[in-house]
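Q: Structure tokens for this one, please.
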Amino acid sequence: KLSAGFAAGYRTTMPSDQFALETFDLGYAYAPGRFAIRHLDIDLHRGEVLGLLGRNGAGKTTTVRLLTTLLPPTEGTAVVLGQDVRYGGRALRSRLGVVLQAESLDFVTVERNLTLYAFLWGVPREVAKTRAEEMIELFELGEARRRKPWALSGGERRRFQVARELMHDMEILFLDEPTVGLDAIARRRILRYLKERARHGLSIVFTTHILHEADMLCDRIAVFHLGQLLALDTAEELKRKHAGAREVSVTFTAPPAPEVRAELARELEARGAVLLERVEDLGAPETKVAFLAPHAEEVLPWLSHWAQSHSLELERMSVEEATLEAAFLGMIGDLDPASTDEAKDRDRSSGALPPGRIGGLT
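A: Here is the predicted structure, written as tokens:
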């Protein structure tokens, strides 16, 4: 639930059309013929959380910088909050929030830093104070509130950086791996808070290497590899399409006859299943079969009907849950762009921003 501080000043001036942003064949070349990102066509709905996934050098951070006007596109363009990123400039940046991986630390205390940052964005003084208290509590900065950011631990500095950006009334929030260095409890609290903000109209673009974070937070996920968009869909659809075979275990209450066991093996294999353990009479009151099925959701109803038609009673059926990690690996295989010189060139070319441009967009 949002605090009174955010309810009092919260701004929902999103465009009236469907999308908060759209890209049109967007690309960025860091050298002639060498692209960090190319032919990118994605969109972001109002109040949606869009995840960007990919290994190092895949183009995620470059995409964030293009969408926030911190890099000029060399191909195509993007329309963010109704404005072309090539011409939006300061007027557009004032409506965005961004947390990048680099740090920008000021020389006043954490508490003062939060309120000053809000003032700079036009948040009324009393609202800013209320928000600062909420951010200090949410990000567990109570013991650090009187310290200066440079004196914080690594995890505290990251929490402070994210908290500071959440002080103002942005319309789209860009977060580039915001939970790096945070423990599991802090990550979960922040993700839940971001989801709540999205329900109140904030659109979020979120990059991460922690796949279960994307699964928990994101409405849709864009998967990048070597500067190209591989897929854009919900986590459930990505898992359904790309996670591959899942392990299915079935336990009968009594061992089936040998000819029935053989028939089951043939039927499963005909449906693309790979048996991990043949149906065997183990001399026990129940018998188990395990197999890998590419479409487990289709095999299970058939298997239940087959058992019934053979007067076999099923005691238990279980299916290994498909994971986003399995889907991700299914899409990109074992390739590692971070190990190539080209990927390292991409990282450097779209590289570090001047310190004054980190945190808020100016």
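A few notes: The longest helix spans residues 184-199. The chain has two domains: 4-241+334-357, 245-319.
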